[in-house]
Design goal:
Helix content is 47%, strand content 11%. It is of the alpha/beta class. The strands form 3 sheets. The protein has a 5-stranded parallel sheet, sandwiched between helices. Strands 8-7-10 form a 3-stranded antiparallel sheet. Strands 6-9 form a two-stranded parallel sheet. β3, α9 and β4 form a beta-alpha-beta unit. α5 runs parallel beside α8 and α18 crosses α20.
């Protein structure tokens, strides 16, 4: 039987299969279906590409649930394209000319993506030869160019663009490359007229075109500034932009040095709130994802029945809560409000994990909630271990239908994934680009010291947040310190060892980054991946001592002060 938890890149999955597996998140659906400019922020694996592909025209047209298929035409524009990596603009010293070269290739790519979208589904447009001739004739007049004849409309335009890209390259390689500027495309003189001509097609005469730029963090700053300039147009009758990025602090600068403003120019949707939010809807979304895949595979059980929690794990946690309640009753003989339940909630799990025999095996990590915890709010991190669990149970079982993943198999796979993650950390210099052996050693030192620090927190009975897993970096006193920290943090973010989101200090209002470790790293060391919705500070000196000199991160039980509260920024 095919594994229902297979997780592939969205663009590698057929349209019918994609529609079957995709689950809409209604919390932001209405924004993506709108004609407004949208900025979609999310870490790698959080579902940005899936979301953009779902709203692309070929998928919307094939989706029986979509009633008016021509209202909004979504065009998916991946950023990893050879035309986007061209660096011929560096031939010019003048910044305006650099922008002209970059905009030229951006425009070629946008129109190519529009053509590919309709080549894939042109039969749905009811195109006639007369309409095709009108559009080609008009474009020929506007662009002063001839288009290949005797082929469908969008194939002809695509072939013309291929020729134009080739001619552009030759002009830029020529000694007289300065003349290229006179012939370059711009958004105003090519993309907009092209979209206007598409209105000649009766099915598109009332359509709005939504241009989906995917993974713009992979583009150069000059490309992002040009796209920001287009966003600043604000006239969204004909087209709008939906821009997805993994950068939680994207640039809003335009190519003329201005700024685009949230609320005025675009609406921001932040998927990273799943990473650190006790009110997150990720738990419900994750359950919907697993439940839908069970249904598609005709496995007629609930998610909790499919992924049961180990009885010993459940009993251990219950005993921890009972011990915490006894301590709370001693501490608060005359309790007020929720003092007892708050204490049990805060210390119950910590007591279970800290009082385990040091010679005992790690807990039997199992159950749907545990899988949500180790996913760190990233859907790819959720499905990958379930995929391997299903494979292992299929190999062990003689039954044709898998209706449950036993807790011991869940534990084995979780520990295996955790071990694999630590092997990735050990070889991090060969895992990501531009990571030297020396930088890899610093990253290894820091995460090893972080685990030692978290164990101390968990075992300390005086600290108020023993299961805090997230941290901020405080007391950065010099630019050199910041530079060294950034090098280590940025490499860790690129390799998803860490995730980051912006928070605000309640007392001062100052915005600062909160770092969320990938929680799959904790099971191998017997730590609680559930954690608490709180954080702890690491001073810049302590961070660098840990990374550079492998020194322990100082631990002080009284560091959790009340004026150190953070709040999420949405």
């Amino acid at each position: 039987m095919e594994n229902p938890f297979v997780f592939d890149r969205p663009n590698n999955v057929g349209v019918d299969q994609f529609i079957k597996f995709y689950i809409k998140e209604n919390i932001y659906t209405r924004f993506l279906e709108s004609t407004r400019n949208i900025l979609l922020i999310g870490v790698r694996g959080s579902g940005k590409t899936s979301t953009l592909r779902y709203y692309s025209f070929p998928v919307q047209y094939a989706n029986p649930e979509v009633k008016n298929k021509f209202n909004v035409i979504g065009i998916h524009i991946p950023s990893k394209h050879p035309l986007f990596s061209k660096r011929e603009y560096l031939l010019y010293e003048n910044n305006n000319k650099k922008n002209v070269v970059v905009e030229h290739f951006l425009c070629i790519n946008i129109i190519s993506c529009i053509c590919e979208t309709f080549i894939e589904s042109s039969v749905n447009l009811d195109l006639t030869k007369d309409i095709e001739d009108v559009i080609l004739k008009n474009l020929s007049y506007i662009l002063e160019s001839d288009f290949p004849a005797d082929m469908p409309l969008f194939n002809s335009i695509k072939l013309f663009l291929n020729k134009e890209a080739n001619a552009s390259q030759k002009k830029l390689n020529n000694e007289n490359f300065e003349s290229f500027i006179d012939f370059a495309f711009s958004f105003n003189n090519t993309v907009i007229p092209f979209l206007e001509q598409l209105k000649n097609i009766s099915k598109l005469k009332d359509s709005h075109f939504s241009l989906f730029f995917d993974d713009v963090q992979d583009l150069g700053s000059i490309h992002q500034e040009i796209i920001n300039s287009w966003i600043s147009y604000r006239d969204n009758k004909l087209f709008s932009f939906k821009v997805a990025t993994a950068d939680i602090k994207p640039s809003f600068i335009t190519s003329t040095g201005g700024l685009i403003l949230e609320g005025h120019d675009f609406v921001k949707i932040d998927l990273t709130k799943r990473l650190y939010n006790k009110d997150s809807e990720f738990n419900k979304f994750a359950k919907d994802v697993i439940s839908k895949r069970l249904s598609i595979a005709n496995i007629d059980v609930s998610v909790d029945e499919f992924l049961p929690e180990s009885e010993s794990f459940k009993l251990g946690l219950q005993e921890g809560r009972e011990k915490a309640r006894e301590k709370a009753n001693e501490k608060y003989p005359n309790p007020k409000g929720t003092q007892i339940s708050d204490y049990v909630s805060k210390y119950g799990r910590a007591i279970y994990f800290r009082e385990r025999n040091s010679k005992a095996n790690v807990p039997i990590y199992s159950g749907f909630e545990t899988l949500v915890d180790i996913s760190t709010g990233v859907i790819r991190n959720l499905l990958t271990p379930v995929y391997f669990m299903y494979e292992k149970e299929s190999a062990n079982s003689t039954s044709r239908s898998i209706t449950q993943i036993p807790p011991n198999i869940q534990r084995d796979i979780i520990l295996n994934r955790s071990e694999t993650f630590w092997e990735k950390i050990k070889d991090i210099d060969s895992e990501i680009d531009n990571c030297s052996e020396e930088l890899g050693k610093k990253i290894n030192n820091f995460f090893n010291q972080l685990i030692i620090y978290l164990k101390k927190r968990l075992k300390n009975e005086d600290i108020s947040e023993p299961r805090a897993l997230n941290f901020i970096i405080s007391q950065v006193s010099t630019d050199e310190e910041q530079k060294q920290i950034d090098e280590i943090i940025n490499a860790s973010l690129r390799s998803t060892l860490l995730y980051k989101r912006m928070v605000g200090h309640k007392a001062t209002g100052i915005k600062l980054p909160l770092y969320v470790p990938n929680r799959i790293m904790f099971p191998l060391y017997g730590l609680d991946s559930h954690g608490q919705y709180s954080h702890f500070p690491i001073t810049a000196k302590a961070f660098l001592d840990a990374a550079l000199n492998n020194k322990e991160i100082p631990f002080f039980a009284d560091e959790d002060v009340s004026d150190n509260q953070l709040e999420l920024l949405f």
